[in-house]
Design brief:
It contains nine helices and twelve strands. It has about 290 residues and is an alpha/beta fold. The strands form two sheets. It has a six-stranded mixed sheet. The longest helix is centred in the last third of the chain and has 17 residues. The radius of gyration is 19 Å and the shape is globular.
Length: about 290
């Protein structure tokens, strides 16, 4: 379907069909349909569909109101992760802790919000052998940064320094630290290159935001977790790898959080991680030619 087509009522379908989709604005770039459809194919869920819809904050309530019993779940990207919360019947403790929902599961007429970004981040790091770190740094603020703090709260023994633009965002990140029980210190974005001395750096900023920092990566850095997956590699990730550092990509995060979404929506555990990863890698390769 055309990802830019206006939201319209769901078409009629057989009773056996189960539906899921990713909502957001913009959403055309999303790899979620590729990952979820790969999972359905491997699991033999031939009557399941997964699409993408261009939905903003103003049209979200209308979209949810148009769902029926065929809908199993939704994946949410920006700017909907916080806007959806008042429209839900229940929010999981994990999602409530960061006030960010990236997953909606339908249980009868109830809409239940969850957050798979946080456990997805932890799983992506664990897959690369990172189960504890003495300290960490976060580049950026916002919903993804707060999820990163929550994930780091599970594995970081010491201080997390967040590099942000402006005192308002600094206050927000310190507030998230207090709420999540993470020792947070904030620093100005102008000093972001200082983050590279940490054994683990999580870049939560949009594509291009860290390009200017690439030339300041030191020799033999620690681990970089860059949440961007398209375009990949980012200039920062490429420079990091060239200097001998370990890199965890946004695709790693996307796959791990999608695995958890598939499990929540379908009830099939475990979801086929490797099949989903291979589909995502192939789709990214096709985009870059």
């Amino acid at each position: 379907m055309d990802p830019h087509h206006p939201v319209r009522p769901a078409p009629a379908a057989s009773r056996t069909v189960r539906r899921a989709a990713v909502l957001g604005s913009p959403v055309a770039h999303s790899l979620s349909p590729v990952l979820h459809q790969a999972a359905y194919a491997r699991l033999g869920l031939h009557d399941w569909t997964y699409e993408r819809y261009e939905v903003d904050e103003q049209s979200l309530a209308g979209f949810l109101g148009g769902t029926d019993e065929q809908w199993a779940g939704l994946s949410l990207t920006m700017p909907l992760k916080r806007a959806v919360i008042p429209l839900l019947d229940e929010v999981s403790p994990v999602a409530e802790s960061v006030e960010a929902v990236n997953t909606v599961v339908f249980r009868g007429r109830r809409r239940i919000g969850d957050n798979t970004d946080i456990p997805g981040m932890a799983a992506a790091l664990r897959e690369r052998g990172i189960v504890r770190t003495e300290r960490a740094a976060v580049l950026g603020a916002g919903a993804t940064a707060s999820s990163a703090l929550a994930a780091l709260g599970r594995i970081c023994d010491g201080e997390v320094v967040t590099y942000v633009r402006g005192e308002e965002r600094a206050r927000e990140m310190r507030g998230w630290g207090e709420r999540l029980g993470v020792r947070v210190r904030t620093a100005d974005w102008a000093d972001a290159a200082e983050a590279f001395t940490a054994p683990l750096v999580v870049a939560t900023t949009p594509a291009g935001s860290t390009d200017a920092l690439a030339e300041q990566v030191p020799d033999d850095p620690g681990t970089l977790f860059d949440v961007v997956y398209d375009p990949w590699p980012t200039r920062l990730a490429a420079a990091w790898a060239e200097r001998g550092g370990a890199v965890v990509s946004g695709l790693d995060l996307l796959v791990h959080q999608a695995v958890l979404q598939v499990e929540l929506m379908t009830g099939h555990v475990p979801a086929p991680l490797e099949a989903m990863r291979a589909a995502g890698e192939a789709a990214l390769q096709a985009r870059t030619g």
